[in-house]
Design goal:
It is a single chain. The chain is of the alpha+beta class. It has two domains: 6-233, 3-Layer(aba) Sandwich (Rossmann fold); 238-353, OB fold (Dihydrolipoamide Acetyltransferase, E2P). It has eight helices and 20 strands. It has a six-stranded mixed beta sheet, with helices on both faces. β9 and β10 form a beta hairpin. α2 packs across α3 (109-122), α2 (94-104) packs parallel to α4 (138-150) and α3 (109-122) crosses α4. The radius of gyration is 24 Å and the shape is elongated. The relative contact order is 0.11.
């Protein structure tokens, strides 16, 4: 951990009696795209502001390339920052806005012109040099803010909810644009969002924040398919939680007697003693309606609601231990409310959460 590109070592931040970031450790490698995801007030933006230099840690240290940066002012940290509200200067043209960090660094006029051109081309705004922010759409303003953050070739780009104000289609387009710029330039990007789909789409790793701590960090597939806690399972995507008691543990399979009496098998490398109460997370799209070949878990259910969602049917079913939500893409037969059925899912596609 000590030789990570960016390293938070037991960093805490308190505002008066309230601790917002609590003894947090985080290592980020060079060229990584790490998203910090969590509900409002979980500490993710405060951590970003401490990395940028706009807030000072109450305790702990922040290092970049093995050198502490806690005491450095923001302009000496060589980091580009993009905020949700764009923070463009309304009285300046697009080119002047993008030039601003270069002028602050006393870059020569000839090089400024060259770099502005490259930065605006990168965000597909090459023809907009002389416009003012008020003449641009929200998406275009956000691209200018991105160009301004990239123009001085920072080692790290920090983004705080940068796409929050955009409509869905534009937001998705910008997600792909930022991803492409990240891949092309090999930037290290630290990205704050509360949008799960955005984090899954863009990140190399996602850190899930809860009450000032990182609850879990991993690749998008690890976080989604292998949540370690109930909070992570419920915060990322949708999930069904089944409560039960461990009955057997052998060959990487746990036998679980779920509330209501039915037996499940859950793949788990971790040791869980028989008799232990556990929760099993299973994603709605991992469950199928209909009997299996016997290799899958089966629960007897009754259909209580069916909602057409375009690319899938959302089916709510009642089992002995509560209701389950199923995302069904099999359109062969549409289940009807009141139908008796079997919900099945594989032992590898459900997971024990703490």
């Amino acid at each position: 951990m000590g030789n990570a590109f960016i390293h938070f070592d037991k960093v805490s931040k308190a505002f008066g009696a309230m601790t917002v970031v609590d003894k947090l450790d985080l290592a980020i490698e060079k060229g990584e795209f790490v998203s910090m995801l969590g509900p409002s007030g979980s500490g993710k933006t405060t951590l970003l502001m401490m990395l940028a230099g706009f807030e000072a840690p109450t305790s702990g240290s922040i290092s970049v390339r093995g050198k502490r940066v806690d005491a450095l002012p923001p302009h000496r940290r060589n980091m580009g920052v993009v905020f949700q509200n764009y923070a463009l200067f309304p009285h300046m043209t697009v080119a002047e806005n993008v030039a601003f960090p270069l002028k602050m660094r006393r870059v020569s006029r000839g090089e400024i012109v060259d770099r502005i051109g490259k930065a605006l081309d990168m965000v597909q705004l090459g023809a907009f040099h002389d416009r003012r922010p008020i003449q641009l759409s929200g998406g275009q303003q956000q691209r200018v803010a991105l160009a301004r953050a990239l123009v001085f070739e920072p080692e790290v780009v920090l983004m705080d909810e940068p796409l929050g104000a955009l409509d869905k289609k534009l937001r998705e387009q910008m997600q792909m644009d930022i991803r492409n710029i990240h891949h092309r330039l090999g930037l290290t990007i630290v990205f704050v969002t509360h949008d799960q789909a955005e984090a899954l789409t863009m990140s190399d790793r996602i850190a899930i924040f809860n009450h000032g701590k990182i609850e879990q960090i991993g690749t998008p597939s690890e976080i989604y398919d292998r949540p370690t806690t109930q909070f992570v399972a419920e915060f990322i995507g949708e999930t069904n939680l089944l409560s039960g008691k461990v009955t057997t543990s052998e060959n990487g399979l746990l036998g679980i007697a779920v509330d209501g009496g039915q037996q499940l098998q859950v793949a788990s490398a971790a040791k869980h003693e028989p008799g232990k109460h556990v929760k099993v997370s299973v994603r709605p799209e991992r469950i199928e309606l209909g009997s299996s070949d016997g290799s899958r878990n089966e629960l007897k259910v009754r259909v209580s609601d069916v909602v057409y969602r375009g690319d899938h049917l959302q089916v709510v079913v009642e089992a002995a231990n509560g209701s389950l939500v199923i995302k069904s893409t099999r359109k062969t037969t549409t289940p009807r409310i009141g139908d008796e059925a079997v919900a099945s899912f594989s032992p590898e596609q459900c997971w024990i959460v703490a």
